Amino acid sequence: MLQIAFSPIYEYPLPKGHRFPMDKYSLIPQQLMYEGTVQEKQFFSS
What we know:
By secondary structure, the chain is α+β, with helices and mostly antiparallel strands. A two-stranded parallel ribbon has the order 1-2.
């Protein structure tokens, strides 16, 4: 089973409207689970 590292500690607050929005990265795990690509138990944080 594929294990995926994910933690909110890797997010960095950037000014609103920044060309590299960090919010999208916190949505990736949710999208992968919604699609059925992965299950929640595959995520871990170090």
